[in-house]
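Workshop exercise sheet. Pairs work together: one partner reads the sequence aloud, the other fills in the structure field after running the prediction. Swap roles for the next sheet.
Pair: D.N. / O.F.
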Amino acid sequence: MSDAYHRLALPARLDLPSAGPLATDLKAHVGKPLTLEATACEAIGTPGLQVLLSAAATWRKSGLPLSLEGLSKECAAQLAIFGLTPDDLCSKEPAL
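Structure field:
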């Protein structure tokens, strides 16, 4: 297993049509440190959020880092509506 971080760009909209492909892309990186690049992400819907929360739990369980970079203030505000912060989508601390 390599310690090098892999990068995965998130789509502009994390909605129902993007949730399945995102889950597939994330599965390809399981077992590797991963950085999610969110600069293109403009909206987070419930299906995409579910995929990201599942990924965070998977990476936490494996003890590997999962980080999120470039999340816009608008997307952070959308997370807050769900009672979450960007850190909840990382492998540092579990979401409550």
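Discussion prompt: The longest strand covers residues 6-9. What would you look at next?
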